[in-house]
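[09:14] KT: can someone run the structure on this one? pasting the chain below
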Amino acid sequence: MPTPRPGDIAPRAGVRHSRRLASPELPAPLALSPPGPLVPLGVAGFLRVRDLA
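[09:31] RB: done, structure tokens below
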């Protein structure tokens, strides 16, 4: 069985849990987000935006 990617788990697992799974693999969540300040901010900025969303 192939290992599911964090991006695939995120919608089903819930925000809190998926946040931890997605942190090592930022390109997948970033690809779903609009380009802009997320890219230079990195992990901290990404988590902050997720909290506001």
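[09:33] KT: thanks! Residues 1-11+25-53 form one domain.
[09:34] RB: yep, looked fine to me
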